[in-house]
Here is the input.
Amino acid sequence: MSRPGPVHEQHTDHGHSQGHVHGHEHHHHSGFKGWLVELFVPHTHDAADSIDDAMEASTEGVRALKISLFLLLVTTLLQFLVVLISGSVALLADTIHNFSDALTAVPLWVAFILGRRAATRHYTYGFGRAEDLAGLFIVGVVALSAVIAAWQSVDRLLHPQPLSNLWWVFAAGLIGFAGNEAVAMYRIRVGRRIGSAALVADGVHARTDGFTSLAVVLGAVGVMLGFPLADPIVGMFISAAILVLLWGTVRSIGRRLMDGIEPDLIDAAHKALEGTPGVLAVPRLQLRWSGHRLQGAATLLVAHDVSLAAAEQTTHEAGQRLSHALPKVDDMVLTPLTATTKGSRA
Here is the structure.
């Protein structure tokens, strides 16, 4: 259940409140297009069922990584056994990629643990960025797996080898799809709850792996129908698909590292703050992700004839409204600014 975080006030010449505030609203697509968007580009957060305590969120993230790591390793082991008895290069490509996908859970696991550490004198914002750096490592591992799979496929095209036990290859492809889809559903669901883009991206990555496993099934069917080169061709297709789908992850991680933010989060924050009685405008609003938590600051323009106590009360109420509108936001600094003060600074 979502718990609105407290707003801790600190006072300056104009007053401000600093608090842990959480949540957001987002737009849902409809129809077939909406289904595709939600399948491969799901939202990073879920305001209806969020975990707004940073420690609890990290704990659930680590639990999700442990469980999904075990499932993927079991899937990879079963597929590798079939590779040994069948010689399918398409299945080998899929197995290599599934193994690399399992390994990507390790740096993300470490990042979640680092993110629990308190801020220090050298790292005054804490260690939330470790999660985004883990995302870069994930990108590198996935790209490397695509290159290895492509090399194996090209080698098999140049030096064809007969395949055996095709029904086992067929079954292994289905196992790969089932294992990856189970992991994808779990990672995406948890990632949305805790606000982790890296975990959601890893879940989408597992989902695409599941569909490439179905491509292995197509390769086996092609060989059964008398087209032996279908196996290495499908292996090359898998490698190309990995690289194409990887671009979405690169953009997501890159945006986080450049302090990019989803426009709907800004819109939700503006709506909450500007809807507070006594707030005339919000001339400055900043938000950024730090791992699976949000940080930010805003300036609230209030009437020039209000007292300092009234301005502080307005700021406190704005913080309360924001705490209900934006889950997963930490350290949101709200600074009241009177119209007279604004004019004197101009």
In short: The chain has a mean pLDDT of 75. The longest strand covers residues 279-290. The chain has two domains: 7-22+262-345, 31-257. Residues 31-257 form a domain with the Alpha-lytic protease prodomain-like fold (CATH 1.20.1510.10).
